[in-house]
Amino acid sequence: MRILSLSDLSESRNLRVGRSNLNYSTQDLSWHPSDPDCILSAAKNSSIVLWNLKNSGTSTLDKLYKDHKTMVNRVKWHPSLPDIFISAAQDGFIRIWDRRVADQSVKLFNCNSEGARDASFSLHKDHLIGASFDSGSVQILDWRKEQVLRKINAHKRLALTVDWHPMWPDRIASGGSDKYIKIWNSENGETIYKVQAPEAVARVKWLPAQPTHIASVSHSHDNNLYIWDIENPTLPNSVYRGHSQPIKDFLLQPGGMDSLITCSDDGLLIDQQITNAYSPKNDRPKCLIAVGTLNTLGLLTANSSKTSLTFINLGNMKGEIEKQANELKIKGDVIECCKANSEVSNEKGVWKALGSLHDLSKQESWLNSLIKESFYETIEYYTERGELQTAACAANVLELKGPIKDYAGLLKQLELSEQAVKLPVSEPNLEFFYRCKCGKMIEDGLCQGCQNKADCSVCETTVKGLYSWCQGCGHGGHAAHINAWFKSNSLCPAGCGHNCVNMD
């Protein structure tokens, strides 16, 4: 750990002395708000270290706290009570400490979660704590009464960070791996604002000089820092660049927003000047391009006189999608499904990795939340690439939320109805199309080409009322006739040979 001068970011002191020690492997830092010689650090070996800069050598390490059993994710001093600080750890515990009391915490919250990611004292109500958890929840705690005042189901995945508003006492911000920043009313748990970020939100901090602005960074896949206006969240107000690895933390320079400082895994500490920030709102693109799930490219161009949208077909992928839809397993034992899919899928390595991780999660339960998060990231990655088949099948095998409805829609667009109806998708208001003998589409019982009405496959007369059909072969008829037929038969009454009852 090093102490740097803010004036020129030069090193003024290095606290690492002697042999290598895990107590120096810092996960988080908190400088005392009123004592310039006192620093807290959260070590990756589950310890909390209190540093005293008045001392020198090994005595700089003043106290060591070891109540947590796993990695400590966050440490913070109380803003107005100089001896009190808080910690949040992967063991799911929130602990309150008093530096006048040696060795053990003075308050403990077991929040029944797989991991506590962040915790922060309110700046206005010194008895309140906001905390975020791997379960996706944000909890408001009263540390004096040792009570959970409110539990907010804030994020669909991990809730990674929280920050109380510096001016408005009842507002608290949270960020999660679902890529959302959400602003909450801590009194009633209602959402006030919501911002969608480009990647998982690992850290948020309010800007004191601009009460509607909040800064965010991601710890994966994104190397930038974003400033958002919560009242106009479509695009970030400004973007700070310069790092080749994701930003781990940042701080605002005292006295305003002329600059902020960012640090990253690339080993760089950058003094980010506001004049060098990129503003997306001032540089909106004149041309947009995207590839759809049916291998169609869309090109949107705009100028002062008109906007045009062009579609270009990049080729037919129906054959490959149909082949994979018939071969990929989407339900059953996870290990067996992953093994089978790794032999037939175009993404063999992914299925092998998913199977290995699932097996590891059964052996090491404390890794469950991290492995589950990696599963979600994999599903999200393939969804964003437009590979709905891999994303949806993986989600269904792992029993996680995924784009299964979008995948079913893709199969129906490709007229792969028999494969689509095998998916576990409930669509009570489904609008379905199938083909007449003339080759044209039939909609609502009427051919769009020859205008022939759909005939009942049982009585061979035209259906004028309620029509029931098989989503696999497309044949059907009067609802009452079809229902009566399948009480004693399983094959299609039209004689096409399709097993309409047992399509699995």
Annotation, overall tally of beta strands:
33
Rg measurement, Å: 29 Å
Low-confidence stretches: 428-433
Shape: elongated
Q: What's the story with the biggest beta sheet?
A: 4 strands, antiparallel
Amount of helix = 10-25%
Number of helices: 8
What distance separates the N and C termini? 60 Å
The strand order across the widest sheet is 3-4-5-6
Strand content: 25-35%
Give short descriptive properties of this protein.
four-stranded antiparallel sheet, about 15% helix, about 500 residues, alpha+beta
Protein architecture, described:
The chain is an alpha+beta fold. It is 17% helix and 33% strand. The protein contains 8 helices and 33 strands. The strands form 10 sheets. Strands 3-4-5-6 form a 4-stranded antiparallel sheet, with no helix packed on it. A 4-stranded antiparallel sheet has the order 7-8-9-10, with no helix packed on it. A 4-stranded antiparallel sheet has the order 11-12-13-14, with no helix packed on it. A hairpin with a 6-residue loop joins strand 3 (26-31) and strand 4. Helix 5 (388-398) crosses helix 6 (404-413). The chain starts with a strand and ends in a 19-residue tail after the last helix. Residues 428-433 have low confidence and may be disordered.
